[in-house]
């Protein structure tokens, strides 16, 4: 297939573009490199460095794109609270421009990178797609707004679309993984401590209502996630917007993650207790039953050790290319 990947220099977009390129698909990546890395783009992909909203129309007008995978977005929860305008314009504005470009060029097949943050603090776990959507920060609110826009475009204009609501994505694949300038996620931060690029990992609260008092999350391997995008793309139907949660269905606490990182790396990883982080729900676990049933999705790397081991292999290999590397 001939595919457009927005945000293909970022983590999930980069890995998915790599999986698609290695699978023989013709991949064009648009990314403005505001947060992504040029070397995070698979060498077989055509790369256009530009804001998606500015160039998507011209790129799609070249014609014959079989589908669009839309990853380009700002995705830092804390930043979204401090600078919501950047998120509303950056995420919603860009997505509307892309949807309009798709409509204008008759490109109908879309997979959108949505998030568990659209649900906010859940009433119960595992979280199913029909549960209330009540995002607790502008990041989640912008992703939910885009989901609503996609639903309307599907109903009115015949767009064939799927939104995939990711839980905690981690791991690496084929030499592509997490290397952000500003890192806030648990597993890459813990591995940077293992590597000696940071002194310690802060544990945000140990008085949560969970078994060991630290927050519980559902970690999903980025390769399993990438596979779901292709399944969605191949089964999209005109006029229909489907939404699926993607997680492993298992919850691991912050302490369990740190201990697994110690086991996998064999390194000492100092930790320090810190106050709770604002906006963190105690427990987030996905039900991916709908994706398994309807998409035929079969996650293969659900074991936390495998996820951490793949992330560690990538992190170690990064060396000086790591943004966290000491100057
Ligand atoms: N966390 C932590 N220390 C850190 C980063 C994260 O204790 O330095 C915790 C965070 O409070 C949450 C879990 O690890 O409970 C996962 O956080 P992350 O930012 O990776 O993903 P999120 O669940 O926020 O999407």
Automatic annotation (TrEMBL):
Residues 4-247 form the NAD-dependent epimerase/dehydratase domain. It comes from the Bacteria. GO terms for molecular function: UDP-glucose 4-epimerase activity. Pathway: Carbohydrate metabolism; galactose metabolism. Keywords: Carbohydrate metabolism, Isomerase, NAD. The keyword RNA-binding does not apply. Its cofactor is NAD(+). Its EC number is 5.1.3.2. It catalyses: UDP-alpha-D-glucose = UDP-alpha-D-galactose. Belongs to the NAD(P)-dependent epimerase/dehydratase family. Homodimer. PANTHER family: UDP-ARABINOSE 4-EPIMERASE 1, UDP-GLUCOSE 4-EPIMERASE. This is UDP-glucose 4-epimerase. It comes from Corynebacterium sphenisci DSM 44792.
């Amino acid at each position: 297939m001939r595919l457009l990947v927005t945000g293909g220099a970022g983590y999930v977009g980069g890995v998915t573009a790599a999986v698609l390129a290695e699978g023989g698909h013709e991949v064009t990546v648009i990314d403005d490199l505001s947060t992504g890395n040029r070397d995070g783009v698979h060498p077989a992909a055509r790369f256009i460095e530009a804001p998606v909203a500015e160039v998507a129309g011209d790129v799609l007008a070249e014609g014959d794109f079989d589908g669009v995978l839309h990853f380009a977005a700002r995705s830092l929860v804390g930043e979204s609270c401090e600078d919501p305008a950047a998120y509303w314009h950056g995420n919603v504005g860009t997505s509307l421009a892309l949807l309009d470009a798709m409509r204008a060029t008759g490109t109908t097949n879309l997979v959108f990178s949505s998030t568990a943050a659209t649900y906010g603090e859940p009433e119960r776990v595992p979280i199913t797609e029909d549960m209330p959507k009540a995002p607790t920060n502008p990041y989640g609110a912008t992703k939910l707004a885009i989901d609503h826009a996609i639903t309307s475009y599907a109903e009115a204009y015949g767009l064939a679309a799927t939104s995939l609501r990711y839980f905690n994505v981690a791991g690496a694949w084929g030499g592509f993984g997490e290397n952000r300038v500003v890192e806030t996620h648990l597993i890459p931060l813990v591995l940077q401590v293992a590597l000696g690029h940071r002194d310690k990992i802060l544990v945000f609260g140990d008085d949560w209502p969970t078994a060991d008092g630290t927050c519980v999350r559902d970690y999903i391997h980025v390769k399993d996630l990438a596979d779901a995008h292709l399944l969605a793309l191949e089964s999209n139907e005109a006029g229909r917007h489907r939404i699926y949660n993607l997680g492993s269905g298992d919850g691991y606490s912050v302490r369990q993650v740190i201990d697994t990182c110690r086991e996998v790396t064999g390194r000492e990883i100092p930790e320090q207790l810190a106050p709770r982080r604002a906006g963190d729900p105690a427990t987030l676990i996905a039900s991916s039953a709908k994706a398994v049933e309807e998409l035929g999705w079969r996650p293969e790397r659900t074991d936390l050790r495998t996820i951490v081991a793949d992330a560690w292999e990538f992190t170690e290999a990064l060396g000086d290319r790591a943004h966290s590397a000491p100057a």
